Amino acid sequence: MNDPDELKLDYLLVADAGEVVGGKLYLLGGGWDRLLVPQLPGPPAAPFAVAVGIGVPWGMTNKKLRLSIDVLDADGGQLSQLAGGEIEVGRPPGMRVGISQRFQIAVPAQPQFATEGRYVVRCSIDAAVLGSTAIEVAAATPSPATA
Fold first, then answer.
1. For 5-19, what is each residue's pLDDT tens digit?
2. CA distances from 114 to 38, 50, 99, 140 (A)
3. What is the 8-class DSSP label of residue 95?
4. How far, in Å, CA of 28 to CA of 18, rounded?
5. Domain spans, the chain
6. How far apart are CA 112 and CA 17, in angstroms?
7. Strand 128-139 to strand 34-37: parallel, antiparallel, or no bridges (unpaired)?
8. For the chain, what percent of residues have pLDDT higher than 70?
9. Is residue 58 helix, strand or coil?
10. pLDDT digits (tens, 9 = 90+) for 42-92
């Protein structure tokens, strides 16, 4: 059972496109885990999006938290930081005591992938990992060395 006083990763998805407007997440082509890139090393042909939703308990609202959304290679090395900085989830007027809130963000991503293989998108708050999702990257056309 989840502790009501701890941060909770509600979702972490990769998608073709995404944005958060008016407290709602809008996704296009979300939930995939395989990505073809034109050539390696190199970026995807078009940016994709990473969408994150975090449940923030009452006791952690109105406090500054350090968010980091990163892409890691198969060895756990940081390939790209997609988002990083301080966030603060406030309490709207009239909110009942003890009610948690959801922080949402959708960020564009177009990292430079070095090789084919598994990459991880990881979300952390104050250096504590909340969760991750993996994507498998492959070249759309094989390199001459592997053809």
1. 899 999 999 999 999
2. 12, 19, 44, 14
3. P
4. 6
5. 8-139
6. 18
7. parallel
8. 93
9. helix
10. 999 999 999 999 999 999 999 999 999 999 999 999 999 999 999 999 998
**Residue 69 burial by CB count (10 A; 0-12/13-18/19+): exposed, middle or buried?**
buried
Question: CA dist 25 to 49, 77, 86, 110, 139, Å?
Answer: 12, 29, 20, 20, 30
pTM higher than 0.70? yes
Q: How far apart are alpha carbons 50 and 136 in whole angstroms?
A: 15
Q: Does domain 8-139 have CATH number 2.60.40.2550?
A: yes
Structure-token pair, residue 115: 């090789």
